[in-house]
Amino acid sequence: MKVKDSEYLKRVRPLLGRLLEELTDRFPYASILAQDGTERSYSVSRRLRSINGGGRFSDRGFVVKVFNEGRWSEHSFNELTEEDLPRVVEAVVRGAAVRGPEGTGYREYEIPEAEPLKFKASTDFEIDPAELGDESILARLQAIRDRGFKAAEGLIDCRVNATWNRTSKLFLAPGRELEQNVMWMTGSVMAAAPRGQEIMASFVSYSNLGGAEVLGGMDGDVERVAKVALELTASEPLTPGEYECVCTPDVTGMIVHEAFGHGVEMDMFVKNRALAQKYVGEYVASPLVTMHDGAAKVPETGSYFFDDEGTLAHDTVIIEKGVLKRGISDYQSAKSLGTEPTGNGRRESFRRKAYTRMTNTWFEAGTDTLEDMIASVKDGLLLEEPSSGMEDPKNWGIQCMVNYAREIKDGKFTGRIFSPVVLTGYVPDLLKSITMMSDSAMLHGSGMCGKGYKEWVKVSDGGPYIKARIRLG
Amino acid sequence: MIERLKAALAAENIDIYSISETDKESREAFFVKKELDLARSTSLRDYTVTVYRETQTEAGRRLGSSTLPVYESMTEEELREALRAGAFAASLAGNQYYELAAGRREEFKPAQYRPGEGGLEGDLDAMVKALFAPDRGGEAFVNSAEFFVTLSHRRVVNSRGVDVSWEVYDISGEYVIQCLEPRDVETHHTFSYSRPDTKALIEDVEESLRVTRDRAQAQRAPKAGKYTLILSGPQVRELLSFYLGRSGAAMVYQGFSDFAPGDDIQGGDVSGERLTLELAATEPYDGEGIPLRDRTLIEDGVLKTLHGGARFSYYMGVEPTGSYKCLRVPAGRKSLEEMKSAPHLHVVAFSDFQMDTFSGHFGGEIRLGYLFDGERTVPVTGGSVNGSILEAQKGMEFSKELYRSAEYEGPLAVSLPDVAVAGE
C-alpha cells in the first residue's frame, strides 16, 4: 500500500502558489518547502508506559528560500492564512536585505537553474500503524517486555519502544512541483542489570521504510538482550591496545557513518574542513571496500524521493574498491564547488537550515562467511552494540564507542567479555586494514544523526561483518 | 488558541490537561570565514497539549497521559479528533497515580535582557563583530561560525490552575577555529548567553585561538597508562551531570539510581574535596509551569534532595523542584597552577567528551592535552580517556578559578586521580 497525501498540504497548496508568485515577482528565484508530519511513540518498561504524539521528526510548517543580488536568505514560519501572506512576504523581504555588520562580506552565488519537473511519489507499507491502533501496538510491546523479564532474573528493567513517522513534503519553485509521502517505523529493546552502582545495559534496534510490519521482527531478540545485560555484569575493562577485530554490521555502520561518512559531506569541503577533499582518487581503504550513500537505492529510514532543496535522491558511490571517488553535497555547497548536488541537502525540519547530510550509508557486502571470519581470528575480539560516535572530518581521528567486546582465541569465543570499548586511531589505517567482509549487508535506521551537536536527521547505516585491526581503549 | 483548546478539551470531556504555548522570533547568520553565506529568520508559534485520563484498576488508582502537538491550522474537527485520540492513548497508558503541579495565574515575567532599538538584528551584528574581532589574520583564524538570537514568549496553563507566562532571551552559536601551520588542525566551540555578552565572547575566541595554535604544535598521543587527569571548561559540567542524573526522581523511581536524601554520595573516605552542587534557576518556570528557585542539591558530599517534575516527585514523596539546566558549584581549594604543579594530563579539547550516567564511565578522544611529567609540559593529541566517576570521585579536586556558561557556574577545572588513558 502507498502512504497517503497530507490533507493539510492539499488545503494550503493554493496559498503557497500565491506566495510563490508574490516572491518571484520580487526576487530572481524563490522556493518553498512545506512539511506536514505525524509521529507516534510507544514505550513500556517495568514501571512505566506511554503513548505520545509528535516528536523530533514530526512537524508542520514552511520555509521560503530566496535569491537576491547573488545572496541567499531564508524565512521559516508555521502559520499561513490569507491574512498571514503580507506578513510572511514582509519578513522574507526584510531577511533578503540583511548584509552583515561592518568588517564582514558575503559569499556570492550564480542565479540558480533547475530543470522543470513535476511529480508525486509515496513509499510503500504493509501494515498501517495508525490502523493497527495504539492498543494493539502497546500490547505487542508489553508481551516482548514480559518475555525479557522472564528470560533473565535480576534485571532492573526491560524497556521496549516503537515509533512511527509519516511525513509529507511539497517543494515548489518556478517550474518545479514535487510531492512526497514517506513513512518509517523503528523499534528497540533495552535490558538493564545492576553491578554495584553501575547499570549495565544491552540493546537491539529495528527499523524499516514501511509500517507496523517492523513489529514482527521484534519478537526474536529479547531473550538474548536480557541475557547479555546479565552477562555484562561480569564484564572486564579492556587493556588498551591494537586488536584484530570482527565488527557486527551495526558496528560497521557506525564506522562507515561516523569515521568516514561525515568526512565526505561537501559543505565541509567548502569550508576547507575535510581531509577527504585532498584524497579524491586515492586509496583510503582496502580494495575490498565499496561505500555508498543515498536516499534512492535501499528502503530504510534515510530514504526519500527528493531532498529539502528539491534535488532528486541519488545513490552515490563514495569509495569504489578502496578508492575515494566523490563526496555528497547539498545544492548551495555544490554550486560553491562547481559540482552537481547529490540529493543530500537535508533540514532537521522546516525550522532549520539545510546542510549536507547523509541518508542511508553503507559498505557493500563481501564474499566471506561469518564462520570463516571468526575462525580466522587468532587473538582478537568481536565488537558488538555501537553506542555513540563523533566525527572528525579535518583529521580523520576516530571516536566511536561500542557497548562490549567478546574475546576470540584461536577462532573460538572464550566467554570473556569486555565493556565499555572505545575505538580510536586514524580512519584510513582502520579502513585499509580490512581483510575480510561477510557475504551479506544489513542496515540499521533506528538512530539519528547530528551535525556536531545539533541538526538531527533520520539516517540509516550498516554493511557486512568486517575484520580489521583497530586501536581500542 | 488557548481558549479554543480549552473549549475543545471541555467538549471532549477531558478535564485534566496541560497546554504549552511558545511564540518564538529568531535571527540567524551563517558565515564561512568572514563572509555571510546565509541569513535566516524564523517566526514560529507552537502548541503542545498533554491530556490525562484517570482510571481505576485492580492495581489501584491510575493516571495516564499523552502529549501531542496541535496547530492553529487544524480544523475544529481535526482538533477534536486529535484530542480524542490523545485521551484514548492516555487511558491505555495508565501509570501510578500522581497529581499535576497546582498554581494560579501569575504575572508575566519578562526576560532580564530585552533587545534595544536595533532589535534582534542589532544584537546579532554586535556578536558577529565580537566573534571576529580577535581574528587578526594570524596563522589561527575563524574558519566558520553560526549565530542564533532568539526571543521566546512561553505560557503554560493546566487544569489545576497553573497559568504562567515568561520570556526567554538567548544568543548562542558555534564556531570553528583553524590553524594551518605547522599542522592543519581545527577546534570546535559553542557559546550561549542570556544577553549579548560581547566581552565574554571575545575572551572565549581569544582562548580558542590559543588552544588551536597549541593543537597545531601537538604531534603525538600520550603513552597508554593511568594519569592524574585535569578537565576544564565545559567538560566539568559534563562530568558533574552524573550527579544531576543520578539524583533525578525519575532515575530513582525506575531503579536506575539508589540515591536518597541524606546519602553520602561520594561514598566516604574522600581524599579530595567533598562536592557541593546547586541547581541554579535561569528561568522563572520549567516546562510544567513549576516555579524555579536556586536549590542546594548536594552539600559537602551529602544529597539534600531529589529533583524532578510533578509526576516523579509525587511518586517519590518529595516536593517537585521542576527541571533545571544550570549547575552551580562553589570554588575549589587549589588554584589551577597548584593543581598543575604535580605530574598530570590536562585535556582541554575532546572530539566529544561524554559522561554515561548509567555506568558512571566518562571519556572521549583527545584533541588537545598538555602532559606534564614533573619537568616539562608538552602538547599531546590523539588517544582517549576512559574513566569511571565511581572510582575517581573520592579524589576529585576543584580549582579556585571559575568558569561560567548557560548551563554551569563553578570551578574552571577538576582533577581526577588514576584515570585510564589509551594512547601510544
SSE arrangement:
The complex is a heterodimer of chains A (473) and B (424).
Chain A: H1 7-26, E1 29-44, E2 49-53, E3 60-68, E4 71-77, H2 85-96, E5 105-106, E6 117-122, H3 129-132, H4 134-151, E7 157-173, E8 176-195, E9 198-208, H5 222-232, E10 241-247, H6 249-260, H7 267-270, E11 291-293, E12 316-320, E13 323-324, H8 331-337, E14 345-346, E15 355-356, E16 360-363, H9 370-375, E17 379-390, E18 399-409, E19 412-418, E20 421-424, H10 427-432, E21 436-437, E22 442-444, E23 448-451, E24 454-458, E25 460-463, E26 466-472
Parallel strand pairs in A: 6-8, 10-17, 16-25
Antiparallel strand pairs in A: 1-2, 1-3, 1-7, 3-4, 7-8, 8-9, 10-26, 11-12, 11-16, 12-13, 14-15, 17-18, 18-19, 18-20, 20-26, 21-26, 22-25, 23-24
Chain B: H1 2-11, E1 17-32, E2 35-57, E3 60-70, H2 76-92, E4 94-96, H3 119-132, E5 140-158, E6 163-179, E7 185-193, H4 198-217, E8 225-232, H5 234-246, H6 249-253, E9 277-280, E10 295-299, E11 302-303, H7 310-316, E12 326-328, H8 336-339, E13 344-350, E14 354-355, E15 361-372, E16 377-380, E17 384-388, H9 389-392, E18 397-398, E19 402-405, E20 408-411, E21 413-422
Parallel strand pairs in B: 8-13, 12-20
Antiparallel strand pairs in B: 1-2, 1-5, 2-3, 3-4, 5-6, 6-7, 8-21, 9-10, 9-12, 10-11, 13-15, 14-15, 15-16, 15-17, 17-21, 18-21, 19-20
Helix pairs in contact in B: 1-2, 3-4
